[in-house]
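S.,

Sequence below, as promised.
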Amino acid sequence: MRILISALLLLGLSAPAVAQPSQAEKAAAKAVQSVKVQSGLVPGFSLQEIQQVLIDAGYRAVLEEDKSGPYIRSGASGLNIFLSTYDCLEDNTECRTIRIESGTFKVDPPLAFEALNEWTRDVVTGWAVPIVATDGSYYLLMKVSTTGGVTRDWLMQNFEIFADSLGKYHKLLFPS
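The prediction came back faster than expected:
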């Protein structure tokens, strides 16, 4: 690179300048950020912020930790729901991926693969996915991204979509 810049200078040419944002561009970026803050958009949530959103909406939300890290234990309609975060800043704030999952269920006899596919295609709401674990237990999983900014209401809507799907999933696994 040094040789290229030296050669350009010998020829009377200048090295390419690194583009710096203009004052107008800086002001526009600041205005966009201000609108996001005023509208309640956030780039992500910490577990503590998620916990507070759930508590404010009337849900149980207990911070716990196991060998895989911290999570929130919550629930709806008597069924456990666990929330954990990923893609966080170093201080575990502004987490950009939220994982919502149910507890595990043992079903005997096992559910037919076709029944799970039909339920997923015809019944499930949102991005909830039924999973069969290696030990044969069943659980429901949903991952959501906060890319582009989201609100507390958005978080609650996704939690409630998952809770509704979990109730339907439980009925599929235990119809009687």
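The helical segments are 2-10, 23-38, 47-56, 113-122, 152-173.

Coffee later?
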